Amino acid sequence: MEKDIKEVLFTKEAIQEKVKELGRKISEEYVSKEVIVIGVLKGANIFLGDLVREINIPLSIDFMAVSSYGFSTESSGVVRILKDLDLEIENKHVLIIEDIVDTGLTLKYLTENLKSRKAASLKICTLLDKPLRRKCDLNIDYVGFEIPDEFIVGYGIDFAEKYRNLPFIATLKKEVYE
Ligand code: PRP
Ligand code: MN
Ligand code: MG
Fold first, then answer.
1. What is the mean pLDDT of residues 138-145?
2. In this structure, are residues 162 and 168 in contact, taking their beta carbons and an 8 Å threshold?
3. Which of the two ends of the chain, N or C, has the fewest CB atoms closer than 10 A to its terminal CB?
4. Atom 2 (ligand 1): residue with closest C-alpha?
């Protein structure tokens, strides 16, 4: 696994520090609000697990699974819900957790969909943002790191379902994905 890595962009320690900072901000801004954090499977799973342990106010956790890419490597913008929420979000403060925002099409669809369920508020928190790739307007409320348009893996992010368990975020050697 490690032999496929080109360069580590964010070490385990750098990620941990950023996650703590985000957790502190979220704890302050959502204090005395009924909050539901929603992880977008599967990529957000690891970030969510670490982030909620840095949030020191009561919250509920739920997950959604969507398929945006289908069999293609390019996002089509057509998103299917594979697993919907278990919880009702009406009148709750919803915070969507993502590992990475790329074209933005997944979150565009998700936020439109969740808006119709009458949450009290709806915000987005992503660990990584690749603004150069954006294909739609999307307002992101909490961003960990902005990154250039490079192929990355680790800390939940996969290539062909591998590398999610790397504790750091890194670029892959070209020969691995070409
Ligand atoms: C990845 C990533 C985001 C989405 C971002 O998920 O985890 O959810 O793509 O891309 P976009 O901004 O262009 O829509 P993916 O669909 O690969 O599923 P996964 O989380 O299960 O890996
Ligand atoms: Mn994802
Ligand atoms: Mg993926």
1. 98
2. no
3. C
4. 100
Rounded to an integer, what distance in angstroms lies between the CA atom of residue 55 and that of residue 58? 8
Digit-coded pLDDT (tens) for 164-173: 999 999 999 9
- How many domains is the chain partitioned into structurally? 1
Determine the Cα–Cα distance for residues 42 and 38; give it in Å rounded to an integer: 12
% of the chain residues with pLDDT over 90: 90
Q: Is the CB of 54 under 6 A from ligand 1?
A: no
Considering every ligand atom shown, identify the ligand nearest to the alpha carbon of residue 101 and give its number.
Answer: 1
C-alpha closest to that of 63 among 34, 43, 77, 93: 43
Establish whether residue 99 lines the binding site of ligand 1, counting it when its CB lies within 6 angstroms of any ligand atom.
yes
Q: What is the pTM of this model?
A: 0.95
Model confidence at 41: pLDDT above 90: yes
Q: The domain that contains 142 carries what CATH number?
A: 3.40.50.2020
134 in helix, strand or coil?
A: coil
